[in-house]
Design goal:
Elements: H1 5-27, H2 35-60, H3 62-92, H4 100-128, H5 132-149, H6 160-168, E1 181-184, E2 187-190, H7 192-216, H8 222-233, H9 236-242, H10 244-247, H11 253-274, H12 295-329, H13 345-349
Antiparallel strand pairs: 1-2
Helix pairs in contact: 1-4, 2-3, 2-9, 3-7, 3-8, 3-11, 3-12, 4-7, 4-8, 5-7, 5-11, 11-12
């Protein structure tokens, strides 16, 4: 795939312009987006991403087009998992609804910058060291295990990192509109708004660790990696408000993502063996008998896993809701645990909603 420096510059410039437009058109004035607004812009960005993929397939061939769509689906699914953690962070810091857009916007920009850096590092490593595929594959298998068996019970707002930040910075106990810092008694204080943004930036860094190796397992083209990530993050703010209530119903999303990460991890290991140069494996010769998983199979597997995880989640929560209703009818309230979270619904109501110094 031939991508000239001019195409790179145009792509990055257009991406920046989109986010600048988002800020001045939707985020600058604090407000809670309506469902209609969120649905309209979510559909626009998803349609734009699909149209871009068709363009890649038409211009550069459908092998690259398939790689883009597989990467976009994977990054979008991982981004939705990001949203679940963002929801916990903003609940932990009790961010007012009308200011959540600004937090999300800044968090998404931080995510894109961090992923851009990881993309550049990953491209350099892949170009110069073929054995890096072994590392990426092993990393994804470990992350898949953690994704499958970990919960979102821990709140990043109360983690060790944020505890250190609070010790280092003087923090006010209350919000001052959407300001990040305020003057009080002749001294500069940071507000909970800035703490929330720092927490989300830290979360973005962690998620970039599995996001970038995952998509490099589907394509070696840095341009596809960048555009798939950019389009996955575009419209994420609107999607947060559109499916905010649905996020808690996607109880098997973590398990679905674990399956996808494990699949890509195996694909990376197979590819590493196919292009092997390590002297202690097969004498440094490639293992050509190892199969290469084609991109069409990757695309079908990823799409199918997302569909199955979503349907299973909705059926599960619907069944739990019916059990709750039957229990209430018989005068016996039923409390069920969320498979993604070891906390019960009662525990969730006691989630900290204030920020202390």
């Amino acid at each position: 795939m031939q991508v000239t420096p001019l195409i790179w510059l145009i792509t990055i410039a257009v991406t920046i312009l989109f986010f600048v437009y988002e800020f001045f058109a939707h985020v600058r004035k604090p407000h809670e987006p309506s469902l209609a607004e969120s649905a309209r812009w979510s559909a626009f960005y998803i349609g734009l991403a699909l149209l871009f993929g068709v363009g890649i397939g038409t211009v550069s061939g459908w092998t690259f087009g398939g790689e883009y769509f597989a990467g976009y689906l994977t990054e979008k699914a991982l981004s939705i998992d990001n949203l679940f953690v963002f929801l916990i962070v903003m609940a932990g810091f009790a961010v007012p609804k009308k200011y959540q857009q600004k937090v999300l916007m800044i968090g998404i920009i931080i995510a894109l910058i961090l992923r851009g850096g990881f993309i550049a590092i990953g491209a350099t490593l892949i170009e110069n060291f073929s054995w890096v595929f072994y590392i990426f594959g092993a990393l994804l298998l470990v992350l898949a295990y953690r994704q499958a068996f970990s919960s979102h019970a821990s709140n990043p707002a109360d983690g060790k990192f944020m505890t250190l930040v609070r010790r280092a910075l003087p923090v006010t106990n209350e919000y001052h509109q959407d300001k990040l810092t305020v003057m009080q008694g002749g001294k500069r204080f940071v507000t909970p708004m800035l703490l929330t943004i720092i927490a989300i930036g830290f979360v973005d860094l962690i998620f970039a660790v599995d996001s970038i190796p995952a998509i490099y397992g589907l394509t070696n083209e840095a341009y596809i990696v960048f555009t798939a990530n950019a389009f996955a993050l575009m419209g994420l703010r609107q999607l947060f408000f559109l499916i905010g209530g649905l996020l808690e119903r996607l109880v098997y999303l973590a398990q679905g993502l674990a399956v996808i990460l494990a699949f890509i991890g195996v694909k990376l290991v197979f590819h590493a063996l196919h292009v092997n140069e390590l002297p202690f494996i097969n004498g440094g010769e490639p293992l050509l008998w190892v199969p290469e998983i084609p991109i069409w199979l990757s695309l079908l597997f990823i799409a199918g896993t997302i569909v199955v995880a979503t349907i299973a989640s909705l059926l599960k929560t619907r069944g739990d809701r019916n059990k709750d209703d039957r229990g209430l009818i018989h005068g016996e309230p039923v409390i069920t645990a969320d498979p993604r979270n070891e906390e019960s619904e009662v525990d969730k109501k006691t989630m900290p909603t204030t920020v202390s110094k």
